[in-house]
UniProtKB/TrEMBL annotation:
GO terms for cellular component: plasma membrane. This is AsmA family protein. It comes from the Bacteria. Coiled coil: none annotated. GO terms for biological process: regulation of protein targeting to membrane. Residues 39-373 form the AsmA domain. The lineage of its organism: Bacteria, Pseudomonadati, Pseudomonadota, Gammaproteobacteria, sulfur-oxidizing symbionts. It comes from endosymbiont of Ridgeia piscesae. InterPro entries: AsmA, AsmA-related.
Length: 484
């Protein structure tokens, strides 16, 4: 129904209905159909516009709202509200034969609802009281866009919980590839959208109650993101991360010819066992502790970032175990084979316990060097040192376990001959085909020489002490040092 008052410059159109059909590339031949209805009121004299009872409907999708406009012919300003009633995007897409995204959980996209209040000015758009429900997730906040011609974005968002893995493509068993070739192929792809980041102006805060992504879980998260003039700064804090805390800062600078990257990350009091299991799918490590990293690099590809990586790392874990390898059993089996005996069957777990595990490392141009690995247990002390080539993905490392007690702790018995003698275990080769070697024969020979030296010293200090001419005893001890 159309009504007009030319003298007052006012027009109204009530119960307006438009039938819409959207078609084109990527859409089904029949197109997507919808109906738009509203009541329109226009006052040209006052330069006002009012839209009431706005409703866009398409099958189960219903978007309703109202809009008010001022100075619409000169410097238009609009405000209003929109509400999307709860519906199923999955069912709606199926009704129009639209392609559905492949998701690990086929039940996602079952619920979507939204509500917001908006205000617009010629150089500004504000979305306020934004609320959205996506399946079991709720998100609230506000968003501002300033100067659409050279946009700057501001936002504050609160997300209660989300399982990102449900929305990712389902896992597909892929044929095995050569690790080196795969790494090289992926390592040459550009990582950063440099031109976009140079123009990006962003200032926002995101809070998340709980999240699961790539099977990693975290809670009480706060992320602050700022970007301006080609410099991106991200500050993240995780209040609960596997019973501990995680925090870090990332700075990316794309102003120059090559992007530069700086990362500071630290974790404390985390339960490493559940974390490693969620990350790798394997129960390989346990313990409580943390780490810190201060790293920097430059480059646009993964290979360049590896080659330019510099910085330092530290870690400390207590009361845990390295699973999959029993170092004491390995030493006993090697000793038995060297003696021509068959290794005895054992029911002890395939793990090496530790009461303390610490290490630090320095990285220079993609080469990681560690000199101070230390692991302690009631019967064992382990020192380690070596290098890791992050670019070539290879390792050259020596672990030196020392038996300190053969009566206490995990598996110390049967190793009396090795007590106090370092047993070097050399690990070398590419990550995909790592090789290890123990020269236990040399170790046992050193053990026997040490015992013989100890016996001779005792005799010199005991039975022969009063029978040797003055000074000869000290000369003999000096000679023993030369022999051993």
């Amino acid at each position: 129904r159309l009504m007009a008052d030319p003298a007052q410059g006012s027009f109204s159109m009530e119960a307006l209905e438009l039938l819409l059909k959207v078609s084109g590339e990527g859409l089904p031949k029949a197109g997507v159909k919808a109906k738009l209805s509203a009541d329109l009121y226009l006052n040209q004299a006052q330069d006002l516009l009012e839209v009431k009872n706005l409703l866009l409907s398409s099958e189960d999708l219903r978007l309703s709202g109202a809009i008010n406009g001022q100075a619409i012919s000169s410097a238009p300003r609009f405000d209003g509200q929109l509400k999307l009633a709860q519906f199923s995007p999955r069912n709606w897409m199926q009704k129009f034969d639209l392609p559905l995204p492949q998701t690990a959980d086929p039940s996602v996209l079952g619920k979507l609802a939204m509500a917001l209040v908006f205000e617009t000015q010629p150089q500004r758009i504000d979305l306020k009281n934004f609320e959205m429900q996506l399946d079991e997730s709720q998100i609230k906040g506000d968003f501002t866009l300033i100067d659409p011609a050279s946009p700057a974005y501001r936002f504050h968002l609160d997300l209660d919980k989300i399982d990102v893995d449900r929305y990712l493509p389902p896992a597909v068993d892929k044929p095995e590839k050569k690790p080196v070739a795969s790494s090289k192929d992926s390592g040459d792809k550009p990582l950063f959208p440099v031109e976009l980041l140079r123009k990006l102006k962003l200032d926002g805060t995101l809070r998340v109650g709980s999240i699961k992504a790539n099977n990693i879980q975290a809670e009480a998260i706060k992320v602050v993101i700022k970007s301006k003039g080609g410099q991106l700064h991200i500050d993240q804090q995780v209040g609960r991360f596997y019973n501990g805390q995680l925090k870090g800062v990332l700075d990316l600078n794309v102003k120059g010819k090559q992007p530069t990257l700086k990362i500071k990350q630290s974790a404390s009091k985390i339960q490493a066992g559940p974390l490693v299991k969620d990350l790798t799918g394997q129960d390989r490590f346990d313990g409580v502790g943390g780490f810190s990293a201060n790293l920097s690099s430059r480059g646009q590809t993964l290979t360049q970032l590896k080659r330019g990586l510099n910085g330092n790392l530290k870690m400390e874990f207590l009361n845990g175990a390295v699973k999959g390898v029993n170092l004491a059993k390995m030493l006993r089996d090697a000793k038995a084979r060297l003696s021509g005996k068959k290794p005895t069957n054992s029911v002890e777990p395939e793990q090496t316990d530790f009461s303390e595990l610490t290490a630090s490392a320095v990285i220079r141009n993609g080469l990681l060097t560690n000199k101070d690995l230390l692991a302690k247990s009631p019967f064992l002390r382990v020192n380690g040192s070596g290098r890791v080539d992050l670019v070539g993905e290879s390792l050259d490392y020596v672990v030196r376990p020392v038996i300190v007690s053969t009566t206490k702790g995990q598996g110390g018995e049967g190793l009396d001959d090795l007590k106090g003698i370092p047993v070097p275990v050399h690990l070398k080769g590419p990550w995909s085909k790592l090789d290890w070697n123990i020269d236990l024969g040399k170790v046992l020979a050193e053990s026997q020489k040490a015992k013989l030296k100890e016996t001779l010293n005792k005799k010199l200090d005991g039975q022969l002490k009063d029978k040797l001419p003055g000074g000869l005893q000290d000369k003999l001890k000096g000679g023993l040092k030369g022999l051993f």
